[in-house]
Amino acid sequence: MDNSFLYSKKILLVDDEPDLLKMAADILKDAGFETVLTAPGAKEAAKTAKQEKPDLIILDVMLPDGDGFSLMKQLCTFTDVPVIFLTAKDEAADKLAGLGLGADDYISKPFMPQELLLRIYAILRRAYKEDSPQVNLDGCTIDFSRAEVRKGGRVIPLTAKEYTLLETLARNEGRIVTVDALCEALWGDNPFGYENSLNAHVRRIREKIEANPSKPVSLITIKGLGYKLRTRK
User: Fold this and answer.
1) Which of 10, 55, 144, 155 has its CA 20 to 30 A from that of 127?
2) Residues 56, 9: contact at Cβ < 8 Å?
3) Which of 36, 127, 114 is nearest to 82 (CA)?
4) How confident is the model at residue 95, as a pLDDT?
5) Closest Cα to residue 183, out of 117, 124, 115, 120?
6) Residues forming beta bridges with residue 84, ordered by sequence position
7) Could you tell me if 115 and 184 are in contact, meaning their C-beta atoms sit under 8 angstroms apart?
8) DSSP class of residue 193?
9) How confident is the model at residue 209, as a pLDDT?
């Protein structure tokens, strides 16, 4: 899947921890995002949001000159871009409060780089839809707008889990996506214990997309790490 329309989106990171701010910015830049803005506090974040008009804001709950909830209320007076809250681990009240204000998602600190990227991709794709996204593989085409595979004159529907799994891999085309990241994409915040279920979904997907499911050329296993999807231009 072509990610160029995602990487052109402006991301604003708001956090008062310099090391975390730099780490998150480096993760996004290394992934391919062209414009990553940062702000250490509420006042500077509001100013940057007004001037730069980001496409997504990642916002810490605790800030030195206010809090993320108050800042989000302020942001909502002049922008409706998606917001992801950063919360302390297991702070359920913060998560609920953020979602109640209209936040699109939340991430608990500390977080894995892949988790941050997957959540950002998911939010951007929901907010800024690409026209008729299709992925060409060796011998078939995945049409994400219809949740189906076209293969040898047949149309094969995808289940919701198969769709999510393939979309997650397609967003990271050519890159390894870990087992943990895929399980989280499919089953949420507590993905542990789902590896066997993931393997079963992978087998069923291969039956739909591969010419020879026992010798896959598109959905590749990276032993000990995860999977990656090879597309055809």
Assistant:
1) 155
2) yes
3) 127
4) 58
5) 115
6) 58, 105
7) yes
8) T
9) 97
